[in-house]
Amino acid sequence: MAIVTPQTLRQDFPLLVHHPELVYLNSAATSQKPQAVIEAVSRYYRELNASVHRGAYTLSAQASEAYEQARRTLARFIGAEEREIIFVRNTTEALNLVAYAWGLRNLQPGDEILLTEMEHHANLVPWHLVCERTGARIKAIPLGDDGRLELEHLGTLLTERVRLVSVMHVSNVLGTVNPVAQIAQAARAVGALVLVDGAQSAPHMPVDVRALGADFYAFSGHKMLGPTGIGVLWGRYEVLETLAPFLGGGSMIREVYVDRSTYAQPPQRFEAGTPAVAEAVGLAAAVEYLERLGMANVWQHELELAAYALARLDEELPEVRTFGPRGQDRSGVIPFVLGSIHAHDVATALDQYGIAVRAGHHCAQPLHRKLGVAATVRASFYVYTTREDVDRFIEALKKVRDFFKDWL
Ligand code: PMP
């Protein structure tokens, strides 16, 4: 199915209907939700709500089935097996889960973790914490001036000391699509595991975790039309089976004594306590919505919007400096600075025209250090973003430029 023209598609999003003048360009931070998702969550609470995996009564069985059906939907979405889908709160929790459940148990002094200079703090700080406790070290694939990773360094960086390569699939700042399959292949050749931060890829492009050749893939529901408080860690089953629990409590055990316990098989081993059932059901509805649009269409739509926005910025706003690669390996994320005006001032000024963009370091301080700027403004697109949104953004940015012209 071709992507519905976003003008009509906007009608599916109550918030966008409620704010007809809003140009929402911060979907890389969090997306808006279609009626189908809001309704799925609401229906769950109206008709199905009960404790899952515990009650002997019919309603509990139905709630459990809704939760497990959501797991099947998520598995289908990324080409995984159902038993490989672990529901977590978000990408941050998924990455921490691997750092603690795998890293704490397996890393030793002298071991290395290979990251990249463009990572989100969610894929840096958990490794700092775990390295402090294990004595392992962190290295990073450098970022080149064109906004792409310098993969020519991979050969020297990937020694047999590297136990894990953890890389973002798509940059939340630059939009760069990293060649994850190629990196994974090189990593596996030295026996390293591969973790992919899919926070900015799962919402925007077709993803097949097996084709990526990774061992883990993490993403958040709220960035892909789903509710907050729900995300996924996918792991290859053979690897998940070797992992120690992360959080302990109900639902993740086999047998418990006062002084010891044994643990359930994955994925239950990693889902301690009452899960976010309504949120999982809502996320499955989001996935079904995206599947109806077709992920290839979603990606194409964003490529076109990004190319259109960049061309207009280049042509009409020479005072604006954009970052990130130019080409088909770039998602609908446009980071920029306007002369030497602080990013927050630009974003606040844009807000006067109803344009919602984010300003700051976008949880990527090492990347901004490398770019040589303290902060950037970021416009990011999604399924409901129209060309008219981009036009209004550019016209507003021209007014902001005119306002600041004496300070540029
Ligand atoms: N990784 C990337 C690439 C992201 O863009 C984000 C969200 N900005 C995260 C991780 C963290 O996601 P969450 O806040 O949903 O845990």
UniProtKB/TrEMBL annotation:
Alphabetic keyword roster: Pyridoxal phosphate, Transferase
Aminotransferase class V domain segment(s): 23-393
PANTHER family: CYSTEINE DESULFURASE (PTHR43586), CYSTEINE DESULFURASE 1, CHLOROPLASTIC (PTHR43586:SF8)
UniProt similarity note: Belongs to the class-V pyridoxal-phosphate-dependent aminotransferase family. Csd subfamily.
Native organism taxonomy: Bacteria, Thermotogati, Deinococcota, Deinococci, Thermales
Record's catalysed reaction(s): (sulfur carrier)-H + L-cysteine = (sulfur carrier)-SH + L-alanine
EC number: 2.8.1.7
Name assigned to this protein: cysteine desulfurase
Annotated source species: Meiothermus taiwanensis
Reported cofactor(s): pyridoxal 5'-phosphate
A single MF term (Gene Ontology): pyridoxal phosphate binding
GO biological process, one term: cysteine metabolic process
InterPro entries, A to Z: Aminotrans_V_dom, Cys_dSase_SufS, Cysteine_dSase, PyrdxlP-dep_Trfase, PyrdxlP-dep_Trfase_major, PyrdxlP-dep_Trfase_small
